[in-house]
Amino acid sequence: MTVMESFVERLDHPVYVVTATAHGERAGCLVSFASQCSIRPARFMVWLSTLNRTFRVARSAERLAVHLPGRDQYALAELFGGETGDHVDKFARAAWTPGPDGVPVLDGTLAWFVGRVEGRTDAGDHVGFLLSPVTGGTSARTGRTGSTDCTDREPLRLSDVDGITAGHPVS
User: Fold this and answer.
1) What are residue 8's phi and psi, to 5 degrees?
2) How many other CB atoms are found less than 10 A from the CB of residue 100?
3) How far separated are the first and last CA of the chain, in Å rounded?
4) Which of 37, 54, 61, 147 could make a disulfide contact with 27, Cβ separation 3.0–4.6 Å?
5) What is the signed CA dihedral for 85, 91, 93, 98, rounded to 10 degrees?
6) What tens digit of pLDDT does each residue of 20-74 get?
7) In this prediction, what percent of the chain has a pLDDT beyond 70?
8) Pick from 136, 152, 145: nearest CA to 16
9) Other CB atoms within 10 A of residue 153 CB
């Protein structure tokens, strides 16, 4: 095991679903490489695998949507992580509404934002998309306590999706 592998295996950060639209195509995938990277101005970096369809659509997109699914949304993560848009219309199987520029905003996630693509960084097998938030929100949904506030729901984490086999090829 490499030094990096032994470091990374201890992390259990949230996972995200990223959606994009460009040239009449929609795409989305499960992402585990993402983070806020600036406070002022607010910026968020999301890394997309160059092997998946979402990257191919996102590289022409002006905006991307980033969604924070709850632990109760494993099926959504499985759809966007375990299927490829090359073979399955994921958006026919998920509830969503069009956001700015038509980018799909998934219903019922803990939180989401649509960000303007400010830049792209090639890092090998992933490309980073630097996003500047344009709009966003949280979804009201009954949580564990019976309230309609989703703040008592936990985010879906990397360890929760460990068993999902990527829908796109890994090499």
Assistant:
1) -65, -35
2) 14
3) 20
4) 54
5) 170
6) 999 999 999 999 999 999 999 999 999 999 999 999 999 999 999 999 999 999 9
7) 90
8) 136
9) 22
